[in-house]
Amino acid sequence: MDLLLAWRNIWRNRKRTLITVTLVTLSVTVAVFMRSLQEGSYARMIENAVGSFTGYVQVHQKDYWDDKTLDNGMTENDTLMEKILSADGVKGVNLRLESFSLASHGNSTKGALIMGIIPEKDTLMDIQSRIKGGSYITEEDSSVILGSKLASFLNVSPGDTIVLLGQGHYGQSAVGAFPVKGIAKIPAPDLDRQIVIMPLKLAQNYFSFPNGLTSIVVLFDDPQRTQVITDKLNATLDTTSYKALSWQKMSPEMVDMINSDRAGGIMMIAILYMIIAFGVFGTVLMMTEERKKEFAVMVAIGMQKTKLATISFLETILMNSIGVIAGIAITIPIILYFMYNPLMMTGKEAESFEKLGIEPIMPTIMSFKIFFHQILVILSISLVAFMYSLISIMRLKIIKAIRR
Amino acid sequence: MKKETKASSPLRGDKRGAPVIIEVRGLHKTYTETEVEVKAINGIDLSFEEGEFTAIVGPSGCGKTTFLNMIGGLDVPTSGKVFINGTDISTFSSSKMIDFRLNNIGFVFQAYNLIPVLTAKENAEFIMQLQGRPKAERDKRIAELFEAIGIAGKENIKPSRLSGGQQQRVAVARALASKPKFILADEPTANLDSKATAELLDIMHELNRQEKVTFIFSTHDKRVIERAERIITLEDGKVVSDIIVNI
User: Fold this and answer.
1) Mutual orientation of helices A305-340 and A368-394 as an angle, nearest 10°?
2) How far is Cα A289 from Cα A304, in angstroms, rounded to an integer?
3) Can you tell me the distance from the alpha carbon of A259 to that of B45, in angstroms, rounded to the nearest whole number?
4) CB distance B113–A293 less than 8 Å?
5) Helices A252-289 and A368-394: angle between axes, nearest 10 degrees
6) pLDDT tens by residue, A246-283
7) Nearest-CA residue of chain A relative to B66?
């Protein structure tokens, strides 16, 4: 009976209920889409910079991350590898040797990130699939792959030779001329502007660092387990020599940027919800005030105030639930569309994104969390609005209300 | 032909020697909400027996409605006591009083006060539903009542599509459905035309006889007063006459 009464009560004034439901629907649609777009962009940013480059967890020599020089590198070590690979959830590793050098071709010179990898095994970066010109390198090659923007800056094509000049292990100079075998389009614009990829052995020779490594990228399936894996590794490894770091520790600026951008977005949605809250409250207020006499009659003939309050609560929840369900139903196809057809920034907007090191693509993401948060917000608004109704019912003076 | 007789005590009905179901002692109600103190009830001692058909009459502001509110547990006296079946209801908590009203008292209001979103049948069975009576019992009782009060066939119609007389019949059915100990009707015919009033009074009188339900009306309406078997007149919050009428 409670539910039936509540359902019929919300449709007493169809126009008012429809306006309220529409407000809630629109707010949920806008909020879910905005949050989905934001979180989708962050996920892509993290995937480009972390999931496809640094990895979610890396192991370094303990001082390396604070002072990224080759002198703080480490050498390949079977015991260390065994410990990392035996940690629960770890599926493999990618070995890397990274440092900076000057890359030169013709009259152009630019600072470059030299990265030595095992080409056949570095599944994380998946450079092979990103080759836009030339071909991929093998472990035995003495040639390199360039990021497309760096290649463009140096005016290099596959088959050309670049000169690298830098500092090797323990202050030795590192110099070499390397044929360019391929050009790769790296999704993270910052990297694309500066990366030179070469086989690990070649990099160890170039930097005069035999068996040298700067990072061991730890591979595992679920990025949500980043902190768990990091903690497990730090518990297993000899922390006087090695340290496992999560991507959040390695890229705090990205975490800060995402957090501040997320806060801005949430603030916008909060303002939207405040406006909606007034609308919902107004409806509940009117629904309560115009029925006080009826409430009084119901209590007079034997309905407990708590039961009356339950019906009023169901009315508020039902009305807002219709809005939430409609909002979610509208948003799901929109999110799915933009998930597979992301918004592509063009012109100056794209440039400004790239200046920030962000790929100018904004995909959406389908996340239960986003929907759940909107449901929670609307539920909270409903509860606050219901408080007015609850207080009115509990303070109801039967005689006074019946005389209205 | 009507024959009027005074009760043995001017303040006490003694019509049939039936059990007393309502007893009021030293009842006072003073309103102090305005600057002027209003003594709405100023010392009433009365009792009502099972099966009475009583009209409480008097000029506007004499305290009729306030008196009904007191014996219906809708308002609390400033002093004095109200006993229903020997229980002092003025000691009840608000929640207990609601339950007491649910199971013992039926109300018929001047403005019908049906729930607009419920059909006639749903309105009539509303109290039985609150009492948790099974559907089969509710259906049987409502069918009987609707037949008795002449609105069979109107079960699925919402109040807004019923005439005033029909709405008040549904209100009577609602009050009677749970077989309360007594029914309090506050100006039940005030919004009805002569025909509807006569029909409604016939119905209530018949139900009073058949089901032995006590009816207590507050009214100005001569048509109701003419049908009453006991007439209590109030003035300035006091009982000035209490007459048993033998029809």
Assistant:
1) 160
2) 19
3) 76
4) yes
5) 30
6) 999 998 988 998 999 999 999 999 999 999 999 999 99
7) A399
Contact A399 B174 (CB under 8 A): no
Task: Give phi and psi for B196, each to the nearest 5.
Answer: -65, -35
Q: How many CB atoms lie within 10 A of CB A220?
A: 18
Map tokens 């547990």 to a residue.
B73
Is there a contact between B98 and A304 if contact means CB atoms under 8 Å apart?
yes
- Quick one: DSSP state of residue A64? T
Q: Give the count of beta carbons closer than 10 Å to the beta carbon of residue B1.
A: 4
Q: Can you say whether residue A24 is alpha, beta or left, with left for phi > 0 and alpha for psi between -120 and 50 degrees?
A: alpha
Pick the residue of B29, B105, B123, B130 with the most A CBs within 10 A to test the interface with A by mutation. Answer: B130
* Pairwise CA distance, residues A374 & A271, whole Å: 14
Distance separating alpha carbons of residues A16 and A22, to the nearest angstrom = 10
Name residue, tokens 């209001």.
B109
User: Is the C-alpha dihedral spanning A247, A111, A195, A120 positive or negative?
Assistant: negative
Confidence class for position A356, pLDDT limits 50, 70, 90 = low
Query: Which sequence spans correspond to the domains of chain A?
Result: 2-49+254-402, 63-238
The alpha carbon of residue A300 is apart from the nearest alpha carbon of chain B, in Å, by 7
Cβ of residue B135 closer than 8 Å to a chain A Cβ: no
Q: How many structural domains compose chain B?
A: 1
Q: Which amino acid is at B43?
A: G
Cα separation values, A80 from A68, A88, A242, A357, A377, Å: 20, 15, 9, 34, 48
Reported ipTM: the value is 0.88
Instruction: Give the helix/strand (H/E) hosting A166.
Output: strand A161-167
Residue A201's alpha-carbon distances to A85, A134, A211, A215, in angstroms, are: 22, 21, 8, 15
Closest to A371 measured CA to CA, from A39, A17, A41: A39
Contacts 24+ apart (CB under 8 A), A368-371: A370/A32, A370/A35, A370/A36, A370/A39, A371/A32, A371/A328
Does the reported pTM lie above 0.90?
no
Query: Which structural domain, as residue segments, surrounds residue B172?
Result: 3-246
CATH of the domain at B57: 3.40.50.300
Q: What is the pLDDT of residues A88-123, one digit of tens each?
A: 889 899 999 999 999 999 999 999 999 999 998 887
Q: Chain A closest CA to B9's CA: distance in Å?
A: 32
C-alpha of A55 from chain center: 14
Contacts of residue B72 in chain A, CB cutoff 8 Å? 300
Cα separation, A259 vs A266, whole angstroms: 10
Which of A8, A293, A302 is the closest to B98 by Cβ? A302
Q: Assess contact for A21 and A276: CB atoms under 8 A.
A: no
